[in-house]
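Human: If only I could read backbone structure tokens as easily as an amino acid sequence. Underneath my words sits a plain record pairing an amino acid chain with its backbone structure tokens. Take your time, and here it is.
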Amino acid sequence: MGRGKLFCLYDIGLGDEKMTINFFMENLANGVSLGSLYALIAIGYTMVYGILRLINFAHGDLLMVAAYAVFFMIAAMVPWWIAAILAVVITAIVGVLIEKAAYRPLRNSPRISVLISAIGVSFLIENLGLVVFSGVPRAVYRPEIFDKSVSMGGITTSSLTFYIIGATVILLLALVYLLNKTKTGMAMRALAISFDTASLMAINVNRIVSFTFAIGSSLAAFGGIMWALKYPQINPLMGVFPGLKCFVAAVLGGIGNVTGAVIGGFILGIVEIMAIAIFPSLAGYRDAFAFIILILILLFKPTGIMGEKMTEKV
């Protein structure tokens, strides 16, 4: 099986074929699990861009904020479930403060000014984390319920995989309901079309924008907490590469389109895991796959899978 299990079907026996199928399914489950995290975080990028036409580069750093919030609350003897909920609330508040302090004053400024502000906020959070928490990685407590092994049809994987997928599905369904079945969701969709028209319809623009940042930051927090469980070590720069990859997922799916962000996240997660499973020698280039996909999508379909040509807000 040294040449890669997936390429040996033509000369293996039934027993080895079963092993190959199990190998494929286990890695597929891991890919869907990772894709679930990418999807959750990518939605935050795409929601903010859909309304403000702004790439919030500080979004990935909110993963770190949530992970450290859980870490220190557990160190203070707060039960894990309560710590996770409080971390989501804290991260949502941080997201709203970022919008009010760094983006709202520049809302009518040239887009390059807002972009520079977003990059500056990202660097500020990362370096503030290095100063406050130090650069030393810290081990993360993982509740026993997430450490169990689950076997299904000959496939063995961690119970955490199924919890991540299940939590992602629930959160995505809740978000779809919010966007399509509530007045707030309707207001968010109106702002995505035109700020001026929405304000003429008595929509409180600032409140809806802040609410959008709160929702996006909350999803990033969930993603960060589950990321810390999946890869149980945290550091102040832990959100950099996941944040960039989730931006790629949002572009792949069609930035500004929530469904597209979900699809892009799952595609990116599955491709990343399966590529390493099939070609183990490429494990050192794992992070490069996302940027190769970004280059290809910008070359051949810049609007992404489900994206539409964007026009400037009026």
